[in-house]
Amino acid sequence: MKTQEELRRDFPLLQRRVYGRQLVYLDNAATTQLPGRVMDAMCGHMRKSNANVHRGAYCLSEESTRLLEQAREKVCGYLGAHGAGEIVFTGGTTDSVNMVARGLEPGLTEGDEIVVSSLEHHSNFVPWQQLAARRGCAFRVVPCPDGEFDMRAFEAVLGETTKVVAVASVSNLTGSVLPIAEITRKAHEKGAVVVVDGAQAVRHRPGDIRESGCDFYCFSAHKMCGCSGIGVLYGKRARMETLSPTAFGGGMVKTVTPHNTTMEELPYRLEAGTPNFIGASALGAAVDYLKETGADEIARIERALTAQLWERLGAVDGVRILGSPEKREGIVSFVVKGVHSYDIAALLDKQGVAVRSGTHCAQVALRELGAQHAVRASVAFYNTEEEIDILCRALEKSIRMLKSYGGGL
Ligand code: PMP
């Protein structure tokens, strides 16, 4: 097992300095850093095998295709899926959710219901809200008071007309872990399709799909040590077969005549156009890296850091942490009385600490928690206890500075 120092050395960017200080990167919920090996895999693909996939009968194209398909196999193994046909490459979580929403659309009619939780990222909220409006479906939002999914309220809205339940595995605002296995079981009893947003979970909960039995699972590579611009839509084979393609073009068809087009098999049927094969190589390498590091080890480190983050931030004078769910992973958001989150983040930045501020694409959840904006600190397994100390000291200093300028605290 690697020491924390060895782990950190795998990530070149963590050596960076900003404003003359060692960078403390605590915005991992927005994007994670890339191990050097992942960058090497991307560059290797570009340097040696760059060619379009599934098209050419020449060496380079075959290599490029092999790298793409190897990545698909790796993702399949990582998730415990039943075959490569269940893994579709997309542009990211947002793209995956939209693909499911659009793909399920023909099967929905007026009077059907779509259920989401109030903790959802806009990417797993707005596509369903829009779909409901287009099809005349009811759109139900399950409350999550204090960041905890309200199972009773869920049971109350669940009925024979519920057709889709879309929930996150881990909230990007509060870090709440939602009970997706129980949600799935209850939704399946009513015959509803379950779509899980795994963006914040996939790095440390690769067993989500197996354990929950959900129908679709969406995530982005850039939140699991891969690069931006690529993600995955997992779907149970039988469910995937029912999904209408939402994009049409090259690569997803078998025959095209002036009168008719026949579609390719899965997963290609849902991958119109040239896929992001360089991104796929990076994702494959990221999966290798995560597997080698070990899901249990990653979860262990991140849980310990989250507990420390929660405890230390909660002790800072003037800080109110948003939500107190029983299970929380990787993320703690907070507000400082009388101060805008942007001011805090800007002052932390000048002290070398990168955190996110604003609404975090979760305006419904923010409002439910009585806030309009928040500061969010989020850890990955390469962070350290010392970095959390630096954050808290820098935060205390920032609050002191804002107070002395009459920030109205
Ligand atoms: N869902 C959750 C829970 C997220 O945290 C994010 C990214 N912030 C998304 C969806 C959207 O991911 P992407 O922007 O990569 O599509």
Features:
14 helices, 2 domains, globular, Aspartate Aminotransferase, domain 1, 40% helix, binds 4'-deoxy-4'-aminopyridoxal-5'-phosphate, 7-stranded mixed sheet, alpha/beta, 17% strand
Mean pLDDT across residues = 96
Q: How many structural domains? A: 2
Radius of gyration equals 22 Å
Termini Cα gap: 46 Å
Poorly predicted spans: none
The CATH superfamily of the largest domain is identified as Type I PLP-dependent aspartate aminotransferase-like (Major domain)
Total beta-strand segments: 17
CATH topology of the largest domain: Aspartate Aminotransferase, domain 2
Morphology: globular
The proportion of strand residues reads 15-25%
Main beta sheet = 7 strands, mixed
If you had to describe this structure to a student in words, what would you say it looks like?
Helix 2 runs antiparallel to helix 10 (277-293) and helix 3 (59-79) packs across helix 10. This protein starts with a helix and ends in a 5-residue tail after the last helix. The protein contains 14 helices and 17 strands. The longest helix is centred in the N-terminal third of the chain and has 21 residues, at 59-79. A hairpin with a 4-residue loop joins strand 11 and strand 12. The protein has helices at 4-9, 36-49, 59-79, 93-104, 126-135, 151-157, 180-189, 208-212, 237-242, 277-293, 295-314, 341-350, 363-368, 385-404; strands spanning 17-18, 21-22, 24-25, 87-90, 113-117, 138-142, 162-168, 193-197, 216-220, 231-235, 253-256, 261-263, 319-321, 331-336, 353-354, 356-358, 374-378. It has a seven-stranded mixed β-sheet, with helices on both faces. A four-stranded antiparallel β-sheet has the order 13-14-17-16, covered by helices on one side. 49% of the residues are buried. The chain is of the alpha/beta class and 409 residues long. The radius of gyration is 22 Å and the shape is globular. It folds into two domains: 4-30 and 294-403, Aspartate Aminotransferase, domain 1; 39-291, 3-Layer(aba) Sandwich (Aspartate Aminotransferase, domain 2), CATH 3.40.640.
